[in-house]
Amino acid sequence: MHKRFVFVREERPESEWLARFIAGRAAARRWYLGDRRGSSRADAEGPALDWYKGVGRGDPPTGTECRAALDQYMPELLPHYDRVCEMVGSDELDRCILSHYRPPPEAAGCTLVVWHGEGGPALVRQQDFPLDMVSDRFEMTNWSDRRVIGKAQRPWGGLHDGINEDGLVVTSTFGGTPVQGLGFAVILITRYLLETCTRVEQAVTALCRIPIALSHNVMMLDRSGDHATVYLGPDRAPAVTRDVATTNHQETVVWPELANRSRTVERLGVVRDALSDPTMTLRDLTVRFLSPPIYSRGLASPTVYTAIYWPVEGCVDYIWPGRTVRQGFQRFDAVEYTHDYSGLT
User: Fold this and answer.
1) CB under 8 Å to 258, separation ≥6 — which residues?
2) Average pLDDT, stretch 196-201?
3) Per-residue pLDDT at 50 exceeds 90
4) Which three-class secondary structure state does DSSP give residue 280?
5) Residues with Cβ < 8 Å from 200, sequence gap 6 or more?
6) 3-class DSSP state for residue 124?
7) What does the alpha-carbon distance between residue 248 and residue 266 come to, in Å, rounded to a whole number?
8) Per-residue confidence at 46, pLDDT binned at 50, 70, 90?
């Protein structure tokens, strides 16, 4: 399977964004309503997706409820939300989708590491995600006079990971439990932190007051070298830690089936061993990320890309085996890259 990626500058959502939203509206509605029929993930995992049925998500919220939640917890995003809602029209479901409030359950595998050795500080992030669900866009935006570079995820505003021009890096990974609550998708929370915060301390304070829909581990780093890993879930209080590595569980494994399938304990052990090696370099660590068990060839959630963020330099390397694309605030190039994901199992 080949997948094409684009790197674009888009100051804020305009006509091109609207065209993309309209083209992907049907898929966005299936995503929001939790319909996985026909997806490669459902085909690959089969009965492993049964947990979706028992989450107790209930009926979708109303557009009024979604806007009120956004106004309460992330009011700085409200003008941008109102603007895109006006662009797409009056459909109630579209407004719910755009809010990222009470999204469907999702479990993806990722590995995150903070590097404080030579060449750091840096944050290394492995993104594992279903290829038919991940968007094709890496982008630099400027919504509120603060430029942000990151891996975009539709339908609006969401970021899997990113950096702002003040040097704050934010990324996340699934936290390993099937619990769902009345909160927001982590990809919109990531956007919010990058739009409104400059330092890890400030971002942690904001993060801990926003309700999250699913279990996630959020890792942050700023140009001073300060970092934090925050364990979040709708059924628990936030735990702010100084952990320099995280995968797809929190303090303990509570979902053995997912843990075994994602090899979360094994991956965490590999990166911890690497970080404890006094001869380890950032280059060698990157090689580990491009090798099993961290690098995934699984059809349900393959490694889509690896990212290395440097907050002091204000740049990021997006890496695929055999290809690296560097982007930064001093130079952001509009390029395309198509990667061959053949041989997924």
Assistant:
1) 107, 176, 248, 264
2) 98
3) no
4) coil
5) 168, 220, 221, 222, 224, 226, 227, 228
6) strand
7) 11
8) very low
